[in-house]
Amino acid sequence: MSSSRKFFTVFLFSTYLLILSAAQPDPKSCLTNEDGCWVRCLGFHDNSNSTYQTNLNRLFSSFTSNPGNNYGFYNASFGQTPDQVNAVALCRGDLISNPGVCLSCFNNATTELRKSCPDAKEAIVWNENCMFHYANRSIFGVLDSNSFYSWDGNKVTNVSAFNGVLSPLLESLRIKAAAGDSLLKFATGTAAVSALQIIYALVQCTPDLSQPQCNACLSDAIGQISDCCDGWQGVRIFGPSCNLRFEIYPFYNVTADGPAPAPPLSPPASNDTPSTSPGESENSPRIIIIIVVSVVGFLILIICSCICFFFWLTKSKKRRHRLNEIEVEALISLITLLVY
Ligand SMILES: *[C@@H]1O[C@H](CO)[C@@H](O)[C@H](O)[C@H]1NC(C)=O
Ligand SMILES: *[C@@H]1O[C@H](CO)[C@@H](O)[C@H](O)[C@H]1NC(C)=O
Ligand SMILES: *[C@@H]1O[C@H](CO)[C@@H](O)[C@H](O)[C@H]1NC(C)=O
Ligand SMILES: *[C@@H]1O[C@H](CO)[C@@H](O)[C@H](O)[C@H]1NC(C)=O
Ligand SMILES: *[C@@H]1O[C@H](CO)[C@@H](O)[C@H](O)[C@H]1NC(C)=O
Ligand SMILES: *[C@@H]1O[C@H](CO)[C@@H](O)[C@H](O)[C@H]1NC(C)=O
């Protein structure tokens, strides 16, 4: 029967979409619509008048004054188990010479968490300048290799040439950052793909990690690039314990970096001739992810409703055989149209 075969095809396709949507990156974009800001909420607590909420409020208000250590790292605990709130916050390593930026970033992050995750037991926010993580479990010195990704810009023209320069750059930065001390585990660097294209890269671990933990975290993150984002000009891999980012324009404070690299077979490139400027970076792929997830979710809802409707139709209208067939046919065409 052709209509049942069509129905089966639609069913398979919707299952496929369901799996696809489940495999999408887990963090959601921030409510502030701030560029490159992601938030993740885990667990659930009663936020009305619980001890946990009280401790959480103490944590959030502590950020209006406390900038952490002088290296942009902050760890704190409020309350007693089982209502203890533990927090770790990390400012991007090149911003620590300007503590006001870190403090402002932490404040923005806590505002975001209050709005996006009002009743989460554990939550984490990443934006371009800092990371803020709180949980009911101990998170200080704990390696968490869970990581997420985003990309921007365009695809590079010669992927093998780009990766041939990128890989050794990231490996050297990983070793440099992991060798950092208990205050700062951070490294930036540049490498030239051609006279016109320079890769700017940054890697950072939370400094509470040991050297082997930081190495492991960054190795995982670097390994993920080929799976998620091979060939993109700009990529961020971010997790609770470490993060990395590279772009073909300077997105961090390059003055602390030392001289720019000499590109192969050409005169030395100056720092201020990137192919794109930071403010004009393309972010549409990230927005597309969000749109795709929403649309897919909406479609699944529609498809489920249609399936229910289909069964209701076949059950309740057995007598009107001919009309029923036509209705089902029309319904399936509509679903197929919607899906595509
Ligand atoms: C909140 O809890 C405290 C102590 O547990 C209690 O005194 C207070 O009345 C509660 N407030 C509300 C609005 O439930
Ligand atoms: C924060 O980290 C330091 C180690 O750098 C540790 O001694 C201290 O106990 C931690 N504070 C809290 C509140 O966890
Ligand atoms: C904090 O948020 C404000 C307003 O959205 C923004 O202007 C500012 O740049 C943010 N600060 C940081 C460090 O991101
Ligand atoms: C943290 O909260 C989650 C969710 O409520 C709970 O399952 C877990 O046992 C808690 N962990 C600790 C260490 O209290
Ligand atoms: C890409 O770069 C490699 C060198 O890394 C070179 O051998 C190859 O010819 C280039 N391919 C193209 C299509 O330019
Ligand atoms: C960049 O880093 C240098 C050296 O650490 C510092 O003097 C300068 O203020 C920084 N610039 C910005 C914009 O943060």
From TrEMBL:
Keywords: Glycoprotein, Membrane, Repeat, Signal, Transmembrane, Transmembrane helix. Residues 34-139, 144-251 form the Gnk2-homologous domain. Gene3D superfamilies: Gnk2 domain, C-X8-C-X2-C motif. The chain crosses the membrane at residues 287-313. Residues 263-282 are annotated as: Disordered. Pfam families: Stress-antifung (PF01657). The keyword Glycoprotein applies. The keyword Signal applies. Residues 271-282 have a biased composition (Polar residues). Residues 1-23 form the signal peptide. PANTHER family: CYSTEINE-RICH RECEPTOR-LIKE PROTEIN KINASE 25 ISOFORM X1 (PTHR32099:SF51), CYSTEINE-RICH REPEAT SECRETORY PROTEIN (PTHR32099). This is Gnk2-homologous domain-containing protein. It comes from Rubroshorea leprosula.
